[in-house]
Amino acid sequence: GMAKFKGTHMREKKLTEMIEQKVKEANEVHQGDETSVEYKVAWDQVEEVSQAKADLRLKLQNTTRSFRILL
């Protein structure tokens, strides 16, 4: 079962990198104009990826918990 766990950990790392990239893009896009549509879209993407990471972390905790119960 550890291989799956490692894969999930890699996905979390990938999501973290994506979040950092999206934040950078959002900051480049708005260049002082926080009312622009591009800026709002960019930040929506940041929030989506952040939510995906939070969901993954929650799933990871639940998996670890049920794994402990099995032992």
Describe the protein's topology.
Layout: H1 2-30, H2 37-70
Helix pairs in contact: 1-2
Describe, in short, the structure shown.
The chain is an all-alpha fold. Helices cover 89% and strands 0% of the residues.
What global shape is seen? elongated
Q: How large is the share of residues in beta strands? A: under 5%
Number of extended strands: 0
Q: How much is the radius of gyration in Å?
A: 16 Å
Largest sheet: none
One letter per element, helices H and strands E, the order comes to HH
Query: Distance between the terminal alpha carbons, to the nearest Å?
Result: 12 Å
Summarize the amount of helix as a percent range. Answer: over 70%
**Low-pLDDT residue intervals, each spanning 5 or more residues:** none
Find the structural class using helix and strand composition: mainly alpha
* Count of distinct structural domains: 1
Helical run tally: 2
Global mean pLDDT? 80
